[in-house]
Amino acid sequence: MKFCTNCVIPETAESHQFNKQGTCSVCTEIKKKKLNINWVERKSMFAKLIQNYIGINKYDCIVPFSGGKDSVYALWFLVTQIKMNPLVVRFDHSFLREKVKKNTEKVIKKLGVDFVDFKPDFKIVKKLMIESLIRRGDFCWHCHVGIAAYPIKLAIQEKIPLILYGEPSAEYSSFYSYDDFEELDVEKFNKTINLGINAEDMLGMINERDQNQKFKIEDLDPYIFPNRDELIKNNIKACYLGNYFPWDVKKQVEIIKNELGWEGDEVEGIPPEYDYEKIECYLQGVRDYIRYIKRGFGRTSHLVSIDIRNNRLTREQGIELVKTYDGKRPSSLDGFLKILNISENEFYDIVFNHIVHPHKPKNIESLKSNKNNRTPKDIINFEKLIN
């Protein structure tokens, strides 16, 4: 399997391409971001953009919010630096960790913003999880789709046409470049978010799998993304701050820790120095583990590659961290299996159906025995909750 000669990401990473020098397309894009983009001009473009929205309605924009580092920074930036009045909207995917809940309370209170927190029916969530795991090797369909669809549906309902996200996907993948001024629209939703399955398709799938309980399309309403005509009619514009201001995760984490008292947390399979990464979900360790089985790299590979691109880590140092942390069986897998009512062998059988060529994973017994030696206390509490 081929790896980037600059960072540590392999060819199995979705959307990545390699040039003749063996450098991946994300490394190339980050270099362009640093050298070729006029950020003063981009800042001016953003100022012109928001002129069309500030002061027109009660809220200037919607900020989709998880309580993680990127959405917290985006909210802090818009409220304190741009002086906007946003409505903060969270789609609660049902597995929020205690630290992120506490962070959210702290941030919302300190910034003095209105907050809408929506949590979907967990009976349906579980059915969506097993269906998307079987169909796509990714149990997070409900999370991907809900986080994308719900804030835009609320934007239409409340007549708040501007939605502002934080980091652009060009920072981590190659579906879009920094030249694209990426927006969340029907094209992006179908291309990068819904795993090729819309809500209507999913309804048919879950009803076919369970003949005893039939759901209606209204039950999946939070997951229905508005069509192109609806978006145009309501003048919806959903864009990313990182296309107008240079995105730098480590600097931004420092800001939100200092300014808002935001706290990091320990996450399975991640070095402790990255305590800011993906702290939102009890099942993040399982999600990263599935990617490791399918594609041959985990969350640590992703994180050290960011630091390598920003000259904060050498490739050799990154490789050592990857060897230590990637690919460990997470303790949260036990709770995950209980939620979906499947055995560990059934889990591996499902995920092995989604291996991305040319990666060749270890055998199941080897994967089982390669366990994570550190289990965050929060994960232990989560397992107790579902017993």
Unreliable residue runs? none
Q: Give the N-to-C terminal Cα separation.
A: 40 Å
Strand content: 5-15%
Instruction: Identify the overall geometry.
Output: globular
Q: Which whole number gives the mean pLDDT?
A: 96
The SSE order reads: HHEHEHEHHEHHHEHHHHHHHH
Tally of contiguous helical segments = 17
Biggest sheet architecture? 3 strands, parallel
The helix fraction, in percent, is 40-55%
CATH architecture of the largest domain: 3-Layer(aba) Sandwich
Q: CATH topology of the largest domain, which one? A: Rossmann fold
Count the beta strands.
Answer: 5
How many individual domains?
2
What class do helices, strands and sheet pairing give? mainly alpha
Q: What tags apply to this protein structure?
A:
387 residues, mainly alpha, 2 domains, 5 strands, globular
